[in-house]
Structures are given as structure tokens and as C-alpha cells.
Fold these 2 entries.
Entry 1:
Amino acid sequence: MAEDLDQELSFQELFEANPVTPRQDYRPGDTVAGQVVKISEETIFVDLGGKSEGVVDAVEFLDKEGAMTLKVGDSVELKVASVSDAVILSKGIKVKGAQAAELLQDAYRSGLPVEGRVTGVNKGGFEVDISGWRAFCPISQIDLGYCEKPEEHLGARYTFRIQEFKEKGKNVVVSRRALLEEAREKAAREVLKTLKPGDRMEGTVTRLMNYGAFVDIGGVEGMLHISELAHYRVRHPSEVIQQGQQVRVLVTQVEAGADGRPRLSFSMKALEPTPWEKGLEFREGQVVRGKVTRLMDFGAFVELAPGVEGLVHVSEISYERISHPKKLLQEGQDLEVRILAIDQDRKRISLSAKEAGAFAPGEEDSGAAAQGGRVALEIGAVLNGRVEKVFPGGLRLRLPDAGPGVSGFLPQEELGLGAKEDPKKKFPPGTTLRVTVISTDEEKGVRLSSRAVAEKRERDEYRSYLDQGKKSRGLATLGDLFKDLKLPKPKS
């Protein structure tokens, strides 16, 4: 106590030795900005402009090791604690001795922050010591978010705002959250002055929800929807990010909310290349294993790689007609599929489960297989093919002569069509073609040609014509010439 009194006396003596007459009307609670002009062992002098000076206790700017954090020339922003012979400044009011109740009441009326230390935890909140004066801080008012571990605040020294001052100071309720919200609002206004869609920002994950996460980018929060976390399907944000994690986001939307506050939307995946941009690791005709992610009336989506899905149309699930994919498939199921087509421009992949042999047909196949024999899939083999699907690059044919579930691809250049002929009109699904095998590959599958069959047929017909011509130019007997001649019968 004696030490406090000595400090107060020396402080008063310092004012008397350095009288400063305020040139402006300041009130307790006002926020002022100034420049540090002198630093002594106990006091810091601040030039407030207009020939006005303020003073602040030097201890407020000492770090944990006792080192001064300011230097002459630094700019500071402080609160006016009181105005008497001089303008007394502070980060927050520090009350002492018998003046405590009066200063606390002034701080309550003016909204001026006060400094206190958390000394205890009870069921509803925290006990706070403000220079010997006991106050209470509700648990919801100690921080911006939910307080999960109250004991972590024990012993901490914070700045508070007095929310209630009753019974001459016997009942004092304070809030730290109110000041944190004000600081956040101020920072948010600075951020929002220049923020626009397309900006890349660093932020901190503040909350995880089932539908996404909230990210703070310097005093203002925005929504990072679960669909914007990654290029692959995410079931919960915790699979990708954690609360408190630093993340880099792209601002996708800045708009005014119903309450006038801005609503921000972010994306993480927009800053990463898509699997399509990186390049797919599979090709048309290849049989791959994937996982069924969604069942729709028209088919099933199968994930082939993280962020890459393809569609198995309901007609490509089984050779037997089914009314809905759920008849044979379920979400989460592993499934082998053949890649029918890859549309790079539209980012779409067409798949077939039946052509990968996932569901063999229940009925007997037609053609050679129905007769008890099968055509070997070797180069040059000629067999029947039935059109199952028409793609921009050709036709997918089922090859029943080679066995159930066997198929091949007939490229458009091997169809032998004229320049103006439309493959979709000339070869609708169900059309039967005679084709020959021109190549086989484990990854690319079987490639076919109908043009080669037609050309071979033409060559065979031409050779037959030549052979017949040679026979017609050879010698013949009279019997050969007249064997079919019929003479009229003589009249009796």
C-alpha cells in the first residue's frame, strides 16, 4: 500500500513539475490517437496534437520480461481515463485504493475499459480482481466463442467493460467479450473496405458444422461450404480441416446480409487444380474398380478416383432390364466398370457395369454361343455385334458370339460411312453388324471394324466374278451346249 502511495505521489509531483493544459475538450472514455514524445521510467508522454499532451503509465507497455514495447515516435491509440490537471491515458482504467469505487462508476457510465485479473472459476463464470475490487464475469462473456475449458483463463490479465454497477460497487458485472467484439468489428471494417470476390486470403477455422466451416479472415467471418473444401466428396469438414487451423481461401462472394452485415463465401478447392486438370489416369475401354456414391432413378454414380465420378446408366448395369439401380446396387459398394467414353470438355465419364462382367445375363446369348461354340477374340476374327450405345467417337457393341458380357468398340472411322451420314440414325441401339477384330488390348479393350468386313466381301465378290469369267471363256461340248434345250414334240 505504501508503495502504491509513493507511486501516486511521484505521479502527482510529475504533473506539477510538467504542467500540461489540454487544448481540447476530452471526456473519460474517449479514444484518442497520438505520438510518443518521451519515455521515462514510470511515465510515457503522448502528443495528442493541438498543443495537447497526455500521459500513460509506462507499466502498461511492458512485456512479460519487463521490456518496453514502445519507442519515441511510435503512434498509439488509448482511452482517456480522466481529465484534471492533465489528460490521463490508459489502455484501460486501473483503479487504486479508496478511489476505486468512484473510478469504476465513472468507467461504467462512460464505457471506459478497466483492467483486471481472473482469480477464480465458479459455476456461472469467473471472479475478477480489479485492483482489489471484486467483480464477476459470466462465462459467456469471457471470450468470443464458447468457453470449453474455463480453467485456462485462471490467472490471465484482461481488459473488461463494466456492464452492471450496483449497490455502490458491491455488485459489479464485467464483460471481456464486448471489447473483443468491438475490436473485431473495427478490424472487419478495415478488411471489408477493399475485399472483393477473387481475393486470396489467409484465415483461421473458428467453427466446424455439418454443412461446412466458418473461417475468420481478420475480424470478419465467412462460410466455407462443405462442397468447397475439396474436389472429392467430403462427408464432414473434420475429414479435411480442424478448428483453429490456418487455411488459405478464395473469396467467392461478398454480399449484404439481412442485418446489413456482409455475408462472405469462401472456397479452398478453387485454389487447387482439379483431377481433370492434372490429367486422368485411365482411358476409354479400360476396366477399373470404383465405389458407388449415389443411386438415382436413371443410374448410379461411381467414384473412380478422388474427385472423379462416372455415371453407370441404368441400362448399363445389367443385360436384364431393371427398374431402378437399387435392385442390384447399393451406396458404398465396390464395383468393377468399363469406361465407355470420356468427355473432357463436359467433364463426364460414361461407364458400364455389365460390360465389365459385373452382372452376367441370365438368358442364353445368340449367335455362335447359342449353338454351343464361341468365336475367339483374336485379330481377324469375324463375328456379329449388336449396337448398345452410340458415342461421338464410335459405337459400343456387345459381342454375343464371343460370350456373355463381352463387348468391343467400333471407331467411327471404321464404320465406312459417307461424310454426310449420321451414325446415330444409321446405327441406333439394337442394330446388328458384322465386324472383324482389328486389335485387342487389356487396357483399351477390343477394337472392331465393319469397314474391313465390307472391303473383304467386295474383294471376295470380285475374285468370284473373275473366276466365273475364266470358266465362260473355256471350251464346251455339244452336249453341254444343248443339255437344257427342249425340242417340241411331233404331232401324231
Entry 2:
Amino acid sequence: MATKKKAAVKKSSAKKSSSSRKYSPAAGKAVEREMKEMKEGKLRSGRSGKKVTSRKQAIAIGLSEARKAGARVPQKKSS
């Protein structure tokens, strides 16, 4: 019986890494500001005015604020 040896094949990554940042530093500052507000218990959601407790929601609010201010932020994913 002959044993077959599989040659190691190098896989090239499908995605090319871009050298430019996806989020601008201003967007990071906006998210940081909203996270601090959430931790202090001062961050409220838009229409209902309920207190934000979710970390993800605080980040989303920060990115939304950055978008409105004109910072470089990728577009929202459409569902």
C-alpha cells in the first residue's frame, strides 16, 4: 500500500488588508465619550429616554453621533 502525503499548501488570505483606518480618531473619541456617559448612568436612548445599559448600544450611539458630526465611519449595515 502506498501512502499519500499531502503537500502543505499556502493559503492566501481572501481579504486584502487596507492600510487606511476604518474609523477616524474623531469617531473613537465620540464612542469613548458615550461609553463614559453610560458608565456614569447619564446616557439615555433617543425616543424613549430610557437609560442605556448595553455596551453595544452605547457604541452604536457614539458612532451615530460621529456620523452626524461628519467623522469617517463606515455606513450602517442594512438588515
